[in-house]
Amino acid sequence: RQSNDRNATQLNLFLPFRYVFTMPESNYIDAEPYKWPYNGDLTPENTCIIVIDMQVDFCAPGGYVDKMGYDLNLTRAPIEPIAAVLETMRAKGFHVMHTREGHLPDLSDCPANKLWRSQQIGAGIGSEGPCGRILVKGEAGWEIIPELAPLPTEVVIDKPGKGSFVATNLDLILRNKGIRNIILAGVTTDVCVHTTMRTANDLGYECLLLEDCCAATDPNNHKAAISMIQKQGGVFGAVSTSTKFVEALSK
Predict the structure, then answer these.
(1) What is the mean pLDDT of each run of 10 residues along the chain (251 residues)?
(2) CA distance between the termini of the chain
(3) No. of H helices and E strands in the chain?
(4) What stretch of H or E contains 99?
(5) What's the confidence (pLDDT) of residue 9?
(6) Beta-carbon neighbour count of residue 61 at 10 Å?
(7) Are 210 and 184 in contact (CB under 8 A)?
(8) How far apart are CA 220 and CA 84, in angstroms?
(9) Measured between alpha carbons, how far is 67 from 82 in angstroms, rounded to an integer?
């Protein structure tokens, strides 16, 4: 009897610690097709936003997209939502990264077929334009637009292609910083953003695309890209909006 009482007392002494050492409270973003991230592990330390290619060449008069004849109102639409998300994430201490697409001045890192295609639509990479040579590093058109300019401490990834992981050190930087969750924003939804999201998903990162923080040169392409993500239970991750994201972080 005394032995049983003693064991019960010892057990009771340890019971409170079961509640002290529980996992941190889960944090989720309202998203489709599932609450994001899947495991509720959302912290400033393990989460970053990557703002993709919000450059003059894609979002401002005289740039690459403008010269191709597309409606700049489409690629400029995400500017204000992205700015709102950046303000909140910076205030909360989240990681912020940016990418720029561009090529060396001698175009030695520009594939021949990419160069040829750009020339067929009258906006040849490396040709002169109102913002300098199109998609060439160091030119005015290559720079990120002033409205979304990176802070001095924020990582900027320069990439020669559509995806942000190919021929860059992005994966190494993310892993060294302990980042597991990636929020995606920028242009264009169906090309550079989608390519980056697909690769990140294959590498094991948990991805969330903010649909009003992205845009395509064709609205139908944007809608299709969003729809693809939500298929098969979230084949590449999940989709939310800037409003839902900011509200969740502000709680």
Answers:
(1) 49 42 69 98 98 98 95 98 98 98 98 97 95 98 98 98 98 98 98 98 98 98 98 98 97 87
(2) 52
(3) 10, 8
(4) strand 95-101
(5) 45
(6) 12
(7) yes
(8) 25
(9) 24
| pLDDT at res. 25 | 61
What is the set of active-site residues? 53, 159, 192
Where residue 69 falls (left for φ over 0; alpha for ψ -120 to 50; beta otherwise) is left
How many residues in the chain?
Answer: 251
| pLDDT at residue 175, as a whole number | 98
Task: Give the per-residue pLDDT at 26.
Answer: 79
Q: What order do you get walking across the sheet with 155-159 strand by strand? A: 155-159, 95-101, 47-52, 181-187, 206-215, 238-240
Please report, for residues 77, 101, 189, 202, 239, the alpha-carbon distance to residue 170 in angstroms, rounded to integers and kept in the order given. 26, 13, 19, 14, 22
**Which amino acid appears at position 246 of this protein?**
V
**CB atoms near residue 170 (< 10 Å):** 23
- Cβ atoms of residues 54 and 187 within 8 Å: yes
